[in-house]
Amino acid sequence: MSFASHDSATRQSQGEAITAEEIASSGAKAEDATARYALLLGDDALILSQRLGAWVSRAPELEEDVALANIALDLLGHARFLLTYAGTAWDKTEDDLAYFRPEEEFRSCRLVEQENGDFGKTIARQLIFSFYQHELYSRLVQSTDTTLAAIAEKALKEVDYHQDHAAQWMLRLGLGTQESAQRVQAGLDSVWSYVEELFTDVEPITELGDIAVLPSTLREPTLNRLHQVIEEAGLSIPDMSGAHGADRSGRHSEQRGLILAEMQVLARQHPGATW
Amino acid sequence: MSPENHQHAPLHLADEGDAATALAEAEAGQHRFDELIAEDSRIEPRDWMPESYRKSLVRQVSQHAHSEIIGMQPEGNWISRAPSLKRKAILMAKVQDEAGHGLYLYSAAETLGRPREEMYDQLYSGKAKYSSIFNYPARTWADIGAIGWLVDGAAIVNQVPLCRASYGPYGRAMVRICKEESFHQRQGWEILYSLSHGTEAQHQMAQDAVDRFYGPALQMFGPPDGDSPNSQQSMEWKIKRFTNDELRQRFVDMLVPQVEALGLTLPDPELKWNEERGHYDFGDLDWDEFFAVIKGNGPLSRQRLEHYRKARDEGAWVREAAVAYANHQAQGRDRDQAALIGA
Questions:
Q1: Does A246 contact chain B (CB < 8 Å)?
Q2: Tens digit of pLDDT for each residue in B85-99?
Q3: Cα–Cα distances in angstroms (integers) from residue B107 to residues B51, B111, B113, B173, B326, in the given order
Q4: CA distance B323 to chain A (A)
Q5: Which residue of B has its CA nearest to A76?
Q6: Lesser CB count within 10 Å: N end or C end of chain B?
């Protein structure tokens, strides 16, 4: 299928989900800056998926094993679309980019790299990221790049569920028991200083015009909605400014290398192999 | 609802009149039950059933559910290291399916009057059994292929006849589970096929995994018919339709052409076609090992339970919070209603 001649990939394949394979074979070729943007978005999704995947068989309830695996799987799907599309600019596959890129070339934000911690911290991280991602994809569906718009359209439906899941848990933990309120507040406090990074206008986004969504424009709506849920859950918005020291430029958290070491180990033991 | 206060459980009798009525009801119930079994119909949750039938089903269905839950561990262990994003996505979906299967099966057991918490507690305490294959480690990526092809393959052979099990909720859960299991087996086969036709190191990895999982997978059908205490009654009740050995034979017959297509071998020098029987002959399995693993001495028996307990323990505060929240909400609704009536 070709994306180039149509407004939207999902509209073209009505009723069917787009797949990474379809993007790879569509003949769509991303410009270098667009590809670097797709990579940045894809890296966030990939790393968070990797983190959430670690919950499988460890969740507080069986239904939650299903839910967290489902969210991880959705995010992995988004990562596959975005990395595949990014790869079209440089003749690389999603796996070249995921498994054979060095740590410092990833563009993921520090929020998604944070350790899972307890369920309270995971839900705090998930609330922030899914609210941000929802605002982002709600606008990216208007991208003048038809492939990015199609990916956003597909992802948005899933993120809609992710944010509901996180918000429902935020209320239950915030208003549940004293212990749960303390734990989820500690989770919010632990990750809150990485919120500002999400809204930093970094390159190549600043050069992309209507292809991309400028992160700074997402700040107010995302924070407003976050504040609303956190207050409804009887919790406090952490009073802290953004943690200094990273702008998605490769000066990332300490955790990224560990995450990638685990993710990439087998693929790197067998370079050139197919699986 | 506990089995004790289930409507069909033994009643507390006030006088002899009640006793006579209960006896008559039980006789009529047994008669109807026997008829339903004889005509190959389904027993449904509200039907009368013998206590021993109920107990036997609860044991089988909950063991099956526990197996799905513990089975998430060896495969979950490879989600983070899956060697391609496509394989990672497939594996994640598969492990998620297993959690879903656990949910269907616990729900089926709940229709027999056994609360889910009670089943969790039995698994937690180590009293409950689950398929002993999951006490073996998933050491390499090829093990994910072998688990899919051999373990899920054996599960399918075992479970397809269970779709016709006489207890309705169990049979219906199995229909859905079998559909997903066949996808799981296929992905396992594909993993092994790619490895077998890949580099030399990948081929060896695949052969090693098949060598390790073949015997334990054949043992998933349970001990030989002579040593299987529950089989005969289960067959009469039409929960089970074939004996352990019949199913094992069916599985071996199925594997031989598949392993040839994979370009791998099965680790049994005695395996050969028997023209007279129309089946493959195969060598004896190590039943001492099987019973040792069942008794809790598998390579990872303790670790699997510790992992499960840790997750339950660490999640306790979350479950308490969810219950507390639900209670607050219900109280809030009661207050609102009271205020409304007061106004």
A1: no
A2: 999 999 999 999 999
A3: 19, 7, 10, 9, 21
A4: 8
A5: B89
A6: C
